[in-house]
Amino acid sequence: MAKEILSGNEAIARGAYEAGIAFASAYPGTPSTEILENISRYKEIYSEWSPNEKVAYEVAFGASLAGGRALAAMKHVGVNVAADPLMTSVYTGINAGMVLISADDPGMHSSQNEQDNRRFAYFAKMPCIEPSDSQEAKDFLKLAFEISEQFDTPVMLRVTTRVCHSKSVVELGERRESAYREYKKDFVKYCMLPSSARVRRVELEKRLSKLREYSNKSPLNRIELSNTEIGIITSGISYQHSKEAFPDASILKIGMSNPLPDELIREFAKKVKKLYVVEELEPYMEEQIRMMGIEVTGKEVIPGIGELTPDIVRNAILGKKVTYEIPKIPMRPPILCPGCPHRGFFTITSKLGLTVLGDIGCYTLGAYEPLSAIETCLCMGASVSQAVGFAKAYKGSKKNRIVAAIGDSTFIHSGITPLIDAVYNKANVVVCILDNETTAMTGHQEHPGTGRTLMGEDAPKLDLEALCKAIGVPHVRVANPNNLKETEKVLKEELAFDGPSVIIFRSPCVVRDRSVWKKPLIVINEKCAACGACFRIGCPAITKDKSGKAVVDPILCIGCGVCIQVCKSSGADKCKNVSIGYCSDICSQICRASALVEKEDL
Amino acid sequence: MSHKNMSVVFTGVGGQGVILASDLLSEVALIHGVDVKKAEVHGMAQRGGSVISYVKFGEKVYSPIVEKKSADILCSFEPLEAIRYIDFLKEDGYAITNTVRNFPLTSIFGKIPYPENPYEILSKFTSKVYEIDALKIALELKVPNVVNVVLLGAISKLLPFKDEEWIQAIQKKVKAKFVDINKEAFRRGKEAIVF
User: Fold this and answer.
1) Do A396 and A426 touch, CB atoms closer than 8 A?
2) A2, A135, A436, A538: which has the fewest Cβ within 10 Å?
3) Is some CB atom of chain B closer than 8 A to the CB atom of A365?
4) Which CATH number does the domain housing residue A460 bear?
5) What confidence category does residue B45 fall into, taking pLDDT thresholds of 50, 70 and 90?
């Protein structure tokens, strides 16, 4: 068969194809996003972006009941959102195979926490499968569907950033269409009224003990016996790090981490002199192994915070302390792109000294200097609900200075319900929907407000204004965030209004929609008074020359013009002339030629 | 090639084409017939932030992560990012950096300025520091986005792959209409550096 280099996410998509699945759903979230993006390329599979992870899990579960193999993919914190249906779906079991893909993010590369979702699988009493590279990601997913059908349970395939986003060589297979399993009405199995839930509760425990037997015999768990001085029990990407750090050690590779293979662990423990558990994040396996009465070394040496690497594993086990000296250099945190429409909004909220309760998306980057505009970030939708609580309890000096900032996709995900709360309970809040007409942070996925589906079809476009009005919001306004005067005026008016209002700041994401690009700007050096006003909007296209004057990088600048507006306003009292203007035609042609721009590069 | 694995660390700023460069190198390794793994992170970390991508190849690769003090080559699209990740380079490994500077906002507002002489700092870690003005070459070709392939051309002289294998990889990863310009960029990168 053909070999290809695939990322873990691409391999999962391939595995879904080969497993003959019928249905796939997700809400985008790093590091899981590319799973559905790649599945959508297979026309044999129905795939959708759902409004949030709870819906994604439920629609997939519905598809499984109806008889088609289904999966739902999400990032680790997405599983929190889907927890409600998940915790009871293990009671009912499935019809056709059902797999939940949980993509965890140790090290929090792109997340607000680093929860270990193996705990979720344990909590829910569902099988947990952990691949350690792309080949396994594909093969284990296929096996997960078989386990799901054999044991009548949803299965968790738990991956981490380094599995999702690492690429390795994968041998491809053919698609085998899964058999359609006819749905049969079964009240006790599918309708979780207390009377039937009590019956299924017992089934759940029976199933778990059968799964443990399976885990002991499954090829997912295997002993690689070598030098027996050191034995390492490990799973997922930690297996690869352990092999690299200790190529001669004996290893028990765990591919099925719930339920753990107790007999296999005992057998392995007897064979080696010193036993270690190498796992990222929680002492998940370690605690269970200790409960079996087996002496083991784990989190007392292996870090429980952040990602592991081969050198961290080696140094931890050998008890070496190694430090690396790097010269002190400026940090380079992620920032709002040049021309990002959020920049105009934050420039004004900073100017007005507003307390901005933030949410999850690109705009959270408005928290960084020099804008320092966003003050909170908790979870999807929390900006709106927190603002309601804030408005009710706040007695400080910034009263009537509190706004919620939430993106369009996040608003649809989890912002609508708290907005209903704001109206219902008469909260004096200004909810700013920063509508850039896409799910930007994760790489521009469609959502109900874009009018397009994952499979590339047209769809009814969710009308945010009509939605907010239908909820009963008395003031619903639309403004252009790139127009600073307008932004300031609308914000001031709505802050003065007593009652909930929504301002939709609408301007497309400039990375996705190049039609809004204008010619790059240029600073007229002689005119620049080096007042620093344009630096404070935090645009990466503007830097400082040796004399402290502004310089615009014509390759980065897309001519949004926010800097011209702050230059003008500072000009009133500092410099007499506006010093920023548009670059010439010729240079913009060079700047815009593109040969190798791919989405992955963004 | 020897049985020992080789590793290359690419660094730069989000949007510079770092990931496509490491994708191309991985593809070449596959075409050459060795095991290969690469790793990077997507999502938030990429919005104009610091980017690092690892590529490892050889007879059998386990972890996709390159260990500190073990990379054979550090190839940076930006001098500050070369310094940031210099501890990945093994003793006397090759540090190749694009010379065009990209000033992070923190260097304008923060307490730590952009270093005056990145070359000098890098030279404290290895004697093999090489600078290349890849943007100048790319602009001569009238396509600034081929900086990544210019840099690949430069480091190709330190790697065990044949030109035909590189061209095959470019053909596979790059859109048809840009293949020629990328082949040219590769050639120019190769010419631009003498190790």
Assistant:
1) no
2) A2
3) yes
4) 3.40.50.970
5) low
Question: B13: closest CA among B108, B91, B79, B107?
Answer: B79
In this structure, the answer to whether residues A476 and A530 fall within a common structural domain is no
Residue A202 has pLDDT above 80, yes or no: yes
ipTM of this complex = 0.94
Q: Judging by DSSP bridges, how do beta strands A501-506 and A430-435 pair with one another?
A: parallel
Domain termination site, one of A510, A534, A562 = A510
Q: Which of A321-330, B30-39, B144-153 is predicted with the least confidence, judged by mean pLDDT?
A: A321-330
How many angstroms away from the CA of B82 is the closest CA of chain A?
Answer: 11
| Terminal alpha carbon distance of chain A | 33
Nearest to A99, CA basis, from A200, A41, A3, A21: A21
Residue B138 neighbours by CB distance under 10 Å? 26
Residue A430 and residue A495 in contact, taking contact as beta carbons nearer than 8 Å: yes
Beta bridge partners of A233: A252, A277
Task: Specify whether A40 is located in the same domain as A15.
Answer: yes
Domain extent at residue A90: 3-217
Instruction: Name the token pair of A39.
Output: 């599945």
Q: What's the residue count for chain A?
A: 602
**Least confident piece of the model among A433-447, A513-527, B34-48, B101-115:** B34-48
Looking at A279, A302, A318, the residue that finishes a domain is: A318
**Rg of chain B over CA atoms, in angstroms?**
16
Q: Which of A246, A255, A253 is nearest to A228 (CA)?
A: A246
SS3 of residue A268 by DSSP: helix
Q: Which domains does chain B have, with CATH numbers?
A: 6-191 (3.40.920.10)
Question: Residue A573: exposed, middle, or buried by beta-carbon count in 10 A (0-12, 13-18, 19+)?
Answer: exposed
pLDDT, tens digit, 9 for 90 and up, residues A549-563? 888 877 778 889 899
Chain A residues whose CB is inside 8 A of the B114 CB are: 329-330
Give the integer Cα–Cα distance in Å for B79 and B68. Answer: 19
* Residue range A345-352: mean pLDDT, rounded: 96
CA dist B181 and B192 (Å) reads 16
Cβ contact, residue pair A590, B139, below 8 Å: yes
Residue A319 CA to chain centroid, in angstroms? 35
Strand partners, A439: A445
pLDDT at A600: 30
Tokens 């990931």, located at residue: B19
Under a CB-based contact definition with an 8 Å cutoff, are residues A47 and A36 in contact? yes
Separation in Å, CA of A455 to nearest CA in chain B: 22
The share of chain A scoring above pLDDT 90, in percent, equals: 81
Question: How far, in Å, CA of A491 to CA of A468, rounded?
Answer: 17
- Check whether residue A584 and residue A454 sit in a common domain: no
From A447, A363, A325, A450, select the one nearest A52 (Cα to Cα): A447
Q: Do A332 and B62 touch (CB under 8 A)?
A: no
Interface probe, candidates A332, A363, A598, chain B, greatest B C-beta count within 10 A: A332
Q: List strand residue ranges (DSSP E) for A64-147, in order.
A: 70-75, 98-104, 128-129
Residues A66 and A79 in one domain: yes
As a whole number, the mean pLDDT across chain A is: 92
Mean pLDDT of B137-152: 91
Number of H helices, E strands in chain B: 8, 6
Measure CA of the first residue to CA of the last residue in chain B; give whole Å. Answer: 20
Reported as a single tens digit per residue, the pLDDT across A228-245 is 999 999 999 999 999 999
**Taking the alpha carbons of A548, A549, A554, A558 in that order, is the dihedral positive or negative?**
positive
The pLDDT assigned to A289 comes to 98
Which two three-digit tokens encode residue A47?
């795939």
